[in-house]
Write a structure and sequence with these properties.
- This protein is an alpha+beta fold.
- The protein has one domain.
- The chain has 7 helices and 11 strands.
- The protein is globular, with a radius of gyration of 21 Å.
């Protein structure tokens, strides 16, 4: 593979690494459109640094870039709608010390391991390696050693990956990691800046595994350079990004927090309030044929009716302008109790177990988006993406 002799070169170019900020966590009670989501990157206003690696999104010094910043001047992704839901899980995010109340073992509660806790998941709790002054970019820390990507990997992050491969190994090598154009929701889905913060699709498991190796290498080196830790330093930390196991994925989806709720949340249906100013945005997203002015009038009427619809991006009864011919904005809709977005619906997510996906997609029924449901992976598809988990280790500690 291309990364066998891969040498991270970003630090040598004097790049300032701004590691990702801590996530804001889920909020199920959004007031108007000024929700916590306003602080997340949007297609209209992307951050300068990658949320997955902390490196500058576009290595502008490279003539080998396959993708460059393209201005998108449309409506911002995060000001389209608000969701009215119960607030029970909105304000509570479990801390490691609290997990014992859910029957999960922790260092302060080692006897709390439930009988149905898989061995591979249980081993994570006692790794004893996480330091609060370290940050694993793009992830939410669920407990001592389980860090999970806050969102499904977005198109912009996959473009970021391809550009850095091109910077290191040339455009021809980087082109091998382009998503399959025949396995996209729409022909321009991967390249149109409108879909910049929509999940990457049409990628193979082999491409995803290569991405994980690359992300592990660049984040490890960036942090060591930021802290001036050479590879033999006692605090030298190695980040290892990979696909989650099924057990890890189900834990992150909330199977132990809300065991009686098939989707990990107590209320799968809610009333939406849609911003009439987003009519043109929704026309593009839904591929509707009605003019924006008509959509705006229909939105105003729907807001007055305050009807409830399924609050996951799946096959559902909804107004025509809410139809989903593609997955949606990665920070859209309420996060779960851990602060993770779209654990149900949007795109089905690859996991370590070959041939399986979890979470369902915009093409699937609500039942297929349940935590325990399984989907099939047979190759790149327009409704399959992924998120990573991160393990960290300190190889010089004994």
């Amino acid at each position: 593979m291309i990364f066998r002799d891969f040498t991270v070169s970003a630090g040598g170019r004097g790049l300032v690494v701004a590691l990702a900020l801590s996530p804001l966590g889920g909020c199920l009670l959004l007031k108007g459109y000024d929700s916590p989501q306003r602080l997340h990157a949007t297609s209209q206003r992307p951050w300068a640094a990658s949320e997955a690696t902390g490196l500058p999104l576009w290595p502008n010094s490279s003539k080998n870039n396959l993708f460059d910043y393209t201005t998108y001047e449309g409506y911002p992704d995060n000001r389209v709608l608000s969701v009215r839901s119960t607030g029970d899980t909105a304000t509570y995010r479990p801390r490691p010390a609290d997990l014992g109340r859910f029957g999960v073992a922790t260092p302060t509660n080692p006897a709390g391991r439930p009988e149905n806790m898989p061995d591979d998941l249980y081993k994570l709790y006692f790794a004893g390696i996480i330091r609060k002054d370290y940050v694993t970019p793009g992830t939410v820390e669920l407990d001592i050693a389980l860090h999970v990507d806050e969102v499904e990997l977005a198109n912009i992050e996959w473009q970021h990956f391809i550009n850095y491969v091109a910077l290191d190994s040339g455009r021809r090598a980087a082109a091998r990691y382009l998503p399959d154009p025949a396995r996209q929701p729409l022909p321009t889905y991967f390249t149109d800046p409108f879909y910049r913060y929509y999940p990457v699709t049409g990628v193979s498991r082999e491409q995803v595994e290569a991405y994980c190796r690359w992300r592990s290498a660049v984040t490890t080196e960036a942090l060591s350079q930021r802290r001036d830790f050479p590879p033999d330093h006692p605090d030298y930390m190695v980040m290892h990004y990979r696909l989650p196991t099924e057990a890890e994925w189900e834990y992150a989806a909330g199977i132990y927090l809300q065991p009686s709720e098939p989707h990990g949340q107590p209320q799968p249906h809610s009333s939406f309030h849609i911003n009439p100013k987003a009519a043109a945005y929704l026309r593009t997203r839904s591929q509707a044929t009605q003019p924006a002015a008509q959509i705006r009038r229909d939105i105003i009427a729907a807001n007055k009716a305050a009807a409830e619809i399924t609050q996951f991006n799946c096959q559902r009864q909804a107004p025509y302008y809410m139809a989903l011919p593609t997955p949606g904005y990665v920070f859209d809709l309420p996060a779960n109790a851990f602060g993770l977005f779209h654990m149900a619906g949007n795109v089905a997510e690859m996991i370590q177990e070959p041939g399986l996906t979890k979470g369902g997609s915009y093409r699937d029924s609500l039942a297929a988006c349940a935590i325990k449901a399984r989907g099939r992976y047979t190759g790149p598809a327009p409704d399959i993406g992924f998120r990573c988990v991160c393990e960290v280790s300190f190889p010089n500690r004994h």
